[in-house]
Design a protein that fits this description.
434 residues; alpha/beta; Rossmann fold; Transcription Regulator spoIIAA; five-stranded parallel beta sheet; five-stranded mixed beta barrel; globular; binds iron/sulfur cluster
């Protein structure tokens, strides 16, 4: 019987893409990829190290999975595995460690675990491998690594310098994914806004989107995070004009205080950040924009924080990801005093989270009466009806009933209500009626 392998992912969209690559390698080596961890023979934890909490989650997951599957082989991969070799001795639950820099060793391990001496199978398609991992949408890596040096960030060390996947390779993957039935492709990268910059290109992300749209006819495309200064007029114009580019962009901010941004080595001021967001919403008024904010960065005074809290209200944001600062060994700020206490970080984070809740609620309510383009992600029989959960182009979960829509389809859904940020709607027929 083929041994079963499950991949559990922590962290960013780039990690989700790496997990798909890991699953493809495993399938190719003759292992059976499953989405459930219970009963799996081999468990891959694709870990994250962006904060202390991510480290802790990676360790806790290893312990939980060991309790669940005492006999399984547990493999830790990803950023935590790469940056914290000192933790290995205190995590006996893990059998094998492979940092991002050692992933090329995985096929050999998979070969030995599956009993095959060499990789023999054909590589499964991107669509197939994402389905094996329980995903409807296809995550496609277009770029990895980062050349910036934000004072708090360990990612350049964990992922190495920025490098773009060759355009032809990306296009081939996109064409094939559409042929195989993909209806949404998420273009991921650590610094995707600099796609092509390592080859001396400008506006590489906009160019890639233009080519992707020409090469396909039904797939829609979603961008992950784009740094503010990489939002160019050409990129905004594409999003405004092309209905197949999702109107959701995550634009990291980190602080509303120019003094803090400068110490963080972020290459913009708050005013420049706001202008970038406004350049998007003036062209795409319905766009859903979100931001990362770090609280309690070394030296962040009460005044700096209040400035951030107040200025956020000036921005056309509809949600925040809030991160209490934590020191990452190997970063520039690790040598600075972590001088905002834990309780104060918690207080600041809670104030931002309250603002986040309000923004999410307001944006969700504003969707009532609109028709959104929703990709069906899961279905569930409920009282004689088929309840479908899907994801809209502006990244909102929408629930609706339909007998004609299958998982993976994109359907127009009119939003009827928004409660606690959750949307319910009904499908719009070709005649335009609900
Ligand atoms: S841009 Fe800054 S925060 Fe983002 S990955 Fe690079 S160094 Fe880290």
């Amino acid at each position: 019987m083929r041994r079963r392998l499950a991949v559990v992912t922590i962290g960013c969209k780039a990690n989700f893409t790496d997990s798909a690559e890991i699953a493809a390698l495993a399938a190719r080596a003759g292992l059976r990829v499953v989405s459930e961890t219970a009963g799996a023979d081999i468990l891959i934890i694709n870990s994250c190290t962006v904060t202390h909490r991510a480290d802790r989650d990676s360790r806790a997951l290893a312990r939980r999975l060991r309790r669940q599957n005492p006999e399984a082989v547990i493999v830790m991969t990803g950023c935590y595995a790469r940056t914290t070799p000192g933790d290995r001795a205190c995590l006996p639950e893990v059998n094998h460690w492979f940092g991002n820099d050692a992933m090329k060793e995985l096929p050999r391990l998979f070969g030995s675990l599956s009993g095959e001496s060499a990789i023999s199978g054909a590589a499964p398609s991107l669509v197939a491998v994402n389905r094996l991992l329980g995903r409807t949408r296809v995550f496609l890596k277009i770029q990895d690594g980062c050349d910036s040096a934000c004072a708090y960030c360990i990612v350049p060390k964990a992922r190495g310098p920025g490098r773009s996947v060759p355009l032809e390779k990306v296009m081939e993957s996109i064409r094939r994914a559409e042929q195989d039935g993909a209806r949404e492709i998420v273009l991921t990268g650590i610094h995707a806004g600099r796609y092509g910059a390592d080859r001396g290109e400008t506006d590489g992300l906009a160019v890639l989107l233009e080519k992707a749209l020409t090469a396909t006819s039904v797939c829609r495309f979603r961008l992950g995070s784009v740094e503010p200064l990489e939002i160019t007029p050409r990129l905004v114009e594409r999003i405004a004009v092309e209905k197949r580019i999702c109107t959701h962009i995550h634009v990291p901010m980190q602080s509303g205080s120019d003094a803090v941004l400068q110490r963080m080595r972020r290459p913009y001021t708050f005013t420049a950040y706001r202008e970038k967001l406004l350049s998007i919403t003036s062209a795409v008024p319905e766009a859903r924009l979100g931001a990362d904010v770090i609280v309690g960065f070394p030296g962040e005074s009460e005044r700096d924080f209040t400035e951030t809290l107040d200025k956020i209200r000036e921005l056309p944001l509809s949600y925040l990801h809030v991160f209490p600062y934590s020191t990452r060994t190997g970063t520039e700020s690790a040598s600075w005093a972590d001088d905002v206490g834990a309780a104060e970080k918690k207080r600041r984070a809670s104030l931002l989270l309250a603002a986040d809740k309000e923004m999410r609620g307001d944006y969700a309510k504003a969707q009532v009466g609109k028709t959104l383009s929703v990709i069906a992600e899961s279905e569930n029989a409920k009282g004689g009806n088929l309840e479908i959960k899907g994801l809209s182009e502006n990244y909102l979960e929408v629930v609706f009933s339909s007998r004609d829509v299958s998982v993976g389809d994109i359907a127009p859904v009119r939003v009827l209500s928004a409660r606690n940020g959750k949307l319910e709607g009904s499908i719009v027929s070709d005649s335009g009626k609900d």
